[in-house]
Automatic annotation (TrEMBL):
Record's protein name: Putative aliphatic sulfonates-binding protein
Family: Belongs to the bacterial solute-binding protein SsuA/TauA family.
Compartments where found: Periplasm
Main location: periplasm
Length: 334
C-alpha cells in the first residue's frame, strides 16, 4: 500500500454513515460572492456519491441532473462510496471528477501524503452531532470515567479528534485512555459486543448505535465543544478545476439548490436517507428533531479560512495530523 493509499484509507464509515441528508429544517445560509464564468473543457461531470448526504439526495431526486443539463452538462454518478477515503481515491485515480461531500480531516491527511486534491467548497451542519457514547449499563457517568477504558475511534478522523478534545476539556491526558483504532464497520460490533467501553462516532452511525445498543452520550459535540475542528468539503483535482472552472462553479451552484431543497423538505429528505440506510423510524425522527442547519462556505471567505486554518493547526499540534498544513495552498476559487 502506498503512503497515499494509507492516508486515504484511514477512515471507513459504517455502512449507511452520513445518511442524515434531511438534517436542516431551518433556512439555508448561502455563502457570499458570485464568480465570473471561466474555463470549460468537458461536457460531462462525474460526481462521487455515497450512502448519504447531499449527493445521495441529489441522485435519488434527479433534480441536480436537470439543473446541470440546462447548462449542457451531463452528470454521471460514480459510487456508492462507503466513506470519504475511497471517494478521494477515485478522484486521484481518474474515475471521478469530484468526491462526495466528506470530512476535511482525512482530506488534509491525504494532502500531506502528496495528493493533488484541492478544496472547492465547504459546508457546516449545526448543531454538530458527533458524539462519544457508552452503554447505559456500563457504569460510565462521564468523560472522566473513561480513564483506563478502551475507546473506539477512527484514526486521523472525527472520532479521534473528538475524543482528544473531550479528554482535554475534562483534564485527562490521551495516555489515560486506550485509543482503539477501528474503522466504523468494525467499531460498531466491537461496541455492541463490549470489546470497547465507548465509541466516538458521527451521525447517523452514532445515532443507530445509540438506538441499537441502549447507549447514551457522554460528550456531544454540538453542546460540549465550543469550536469547530472538522468541516465537510467537496474536493477535485487541481488540474481539473483549472481547466473547468465554469463547470466547477455550475456543480457548486447546483448543490446549493439541492441543499436549499433539503432544508425546505427535512421530512422527505430524511425518508430518502432512511430508505437507503435502512435504520429505524426512531433514528430518523431523532435526526429530524435535531433541527440542523446547513451553511455553505466559499474558499474566498476569509473568516471561514481562518477557522479552517485553526482547525488544521489544532489537529497537527495534537499529532492527529502528522504535520502542519497551510490550507490556503489547497483552495480553488471559481
Amino acid at each position: 500500500m502506498t503512503k497515499l493509499d494509507h492516508a486515504l484509507t484511514r477512515r471507513h464509515l459504517l455502512q449507511g454513515a452520513a445518511l442524515s441528508a434531511g438534517i436542516a429544517a431551518a433556512g439555508l445560509a448561502l455563502p457570499r460572492g458570485a464568480f465570473a464564468a471561466g474555463t470549460r473543457n468537458t461536457g460531462t461531470v462525474r460526481l462521487g456519491w455515497g450512502q448519504g448526504g447531499l449527493p445521495l439526495v441529489a441522485r435519488e431526486r434527479g433534480e441536480l441532473e436537470k439543473t446541470l443539463a440546462g447548462k449542457d452538462i451531463k452528470v454521471e454518478w460514480v459510487g456508492p462510496f462507503p466513506n470519504h477515503a475511497p471517494s478521494m481515491r477515485a478522484v486521484v485515480g481518474g474515475s471521478a471528477d469530484f468526491g462526495f461531500w466528506g470530512s476535511t480531516t482525512p482530506a488534509l491527511a491525504a494532502l500531506i501524503a502528496g495528493s493533488p486534491l484541492v478544496f472547492t467548497n465547504f459546508l457546516l451542519t449545526n448543531p454538530r452531532s458527533t458524539a462519544i457514547i457508552v452503554k447505559n449499563a456500563s457504569g460510565i457517568a462521564g468523560v472522566r470515567d473513561l480513564k483506563g477504558k478502551r475507546v473506539a475511534v477512527n484514526r486521523s478522523g472525527l472520532g479521534e479528534f473528538l475524543l482528544v478534545a473531550a479528554l482535554e476539556k475534562n483534564g485527562l491526558d490521551r495516555k489515560d485512555v486506550e485509543f482503539v483504532y477501528l474503522n466504523p464497520p468494525d467499531a460498531a460490533p466491537a461496541f455492541g459486543q463490549g470489546k470497547v467501553d465507548a465509541w466516538s462516532m458521527w451521525s447517523p452511525g452514532v445515532d443507530i448505535a445509540r438506538d441499537r445498543f441502549d447507549a447514551r452520550d457522554i460528550f456531544f459535540e454540538g453542546n460540549d465543544l465550543d469550536f469547530v475542528i472538522d468541516f465537510t468539503s467537496l474536493v477535485t483535482l487541481r488540474g481539473f478545476a483549472e481547466k473547468n472552472s465554469e463547470l466547477v462553479r455550475a456543480v457548486i451552484d447546483a448543490y446549493y439548490e439541492e441543499g436549499r431543497w433539503v432544508n425546505d423538505h427535512p421530512g422527505e429528505a430524511n425518508r430518502i436517507a432512511q430508505k437507503v440506510g435502512q435504520y429505524s423510524d426512531a433514528v430518523r425522527d431523532h435526526l429530524t428533531g435535531l433541527q440542523q442547519k446547513i451553511t455553505f462556505y466559499e474558499p474566498d471567505d476569509q473568516d471561514f479560512v481562518k477557522k479552517f486554518q485553526f482547525a488544521s493547526d489544532w489537529l497537527s499540534e495534537r499529532k492527529i495530523l502528522p504535520q502542519k498544513v497551510n490550507v490556503s495552498d489547497y483552495l480553488v476559487k471559481t
